[in-house]
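quick one before i forget lol
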Amino acid sequence: MGILDRLKPKRPRKTQTSPAQLPRRIRIGLWAAAFLTGLIGMVNLLSAVTPSLPERRDWLELFVPFEVRASGRVFTAIAGFLLLVLAANLLRRKRVAWILTVGLLIISIIGHLIKGFDYEESILAGVLLIQLLIMRPVFTAQSDRPSIAQGIRVLIGSVLFTLAYGTAGFYILDGRFKVDDKLVNFSLRESILQTLAMFFTEDNAGLEPVGRFAEFFANSIYIVGAVALTFSLILLLRPVLLRGSPATIAERQRAREIIDQYGQSSLARLSLLSDKVYYFSPSGKSVVAYVAKGRAAIALGDPIGPLEDRAEAIIGFQHFCDRNDWFPTFYEAVPEQLPLYESLGYRYVQIGEEAIIDLKTFNLKGKANQNLRTAINRLTKTGHSFKVFEPPISDDLIAQLKPVSDEWLQAKNGSEKQFSIGWFHREYLQGCHIAVVYDAHGTIVAFSSLLSGYKKKEVTVDLMRHRKTVENGTMEYLFASMMQHFQKLEYDSFNLSLSPLAGVGSSPDAQRVEKGLNYFFENLNKFYNFKGLHQFKEKFQPRWEPRYLVFQSRATLPDIAVGLVRADSGDRLLDYLKPGT
């Protein structure tokens, strides 16, 4: 099949990843299983506190001791609570949720039978159990293994601690509790059973505390039980987390080889930064550079590799994310790839525009460029000068740039951004072009780092920083001089990089999501200078090219938004939200 055939939307190739993209039969099965799980959870809780039918209870008394029947109520209630929590996680196709649900259904079936021979509830639980066993191959999403182990440890530790704490309390606090207006003196065995019943359920068997201390003691068991169970379930069901070094040396080298061969723009160079992790396509020819935050796995740009392998790379990354309970997302996708994403069941929304200067036609003539010419003339008369340094950059120059960068960050009340841009790091900057502006005293007052493209002669602005106090027009002087410099070197284009949210949601036919992003562009300028950045780039009369966020479902957008903020800020959310950053 040729590349043109792959791009035709009329022959979509669906993949089995998100619930929205699964075959209809499986989607219906998932929703039915989740609904029945929640329903059985509610039935269990109601059944645990509802008296058994007298004739069934009398018959059971001949075979099952009261203590066993009472424990059946306790475990039925426990299973009910946990099933309610697990219902939503079955829709995520969590393997751990499936295992826990199957186990709890078995407990529910046994519990219903021994507590009151409630065979109706047992049959309902049995039907769901059979359905889940048949659907076992569907539940492939993993949970974070260290978190699973931690969750189990937390649960076991909480049970043991509370068991010792509650048993000692009930055993010692004679005369502090009553049942049916009679004071109770607990034996050791009764203390253990009462603690377990209160830890896992709200069933206190009619126990009433006498006095504030006894009431506090009883409430503390409920609190410890609720917190421990909730925290343990969160740990058991959380998505896979990335820890430690994002990528091995071997993976980074393999990614570099693919990017060096197939990279198309300077954006590909940012895929080699240390915050990225790599997924390699089944053929091994393509790479996806991504950052995983929460449930969002956000790829920087489109997959990098041969065009004929692009679809398989997207599908493979989708399966990989599915196994880790992540949402596959592509940030700054180019318009040419949108038909392919659509054919694979993805949605997209515009997130901004890249400002690109055609250096073949660029000049400073005309009325529109009067301000740029004025800035260059004024800075030249005041003794300012401009210079571009080629890589590798010396340690001495980086040492001179560091105070400028620190002063700029301090003025912005923020910290280094990551993911889609570089940051001030010696090894990274050594591989960039560095353009600097000197004042009349030979001191650097502004600089910019630049990335060159791969397959086309394009240079892209990355870092751009200046001291707190500079001459008016310093940055205009810096940028205009950079364009002239690379124009003389016969570069084809100068990329001013992405202008976030520029051009988004302004047209009448814009999507609702895009109109919402337009609101941020217009009203949240104090947190991030979207409009000011766009207006600065507009001075150079660039060609604006749209860039897109590609995702599977609108329901995943909140997770993706949080993931993008975390990736961009390096998980320093408070710094990210400071005004002026």
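fyi The longest strand covers residues 347-358.
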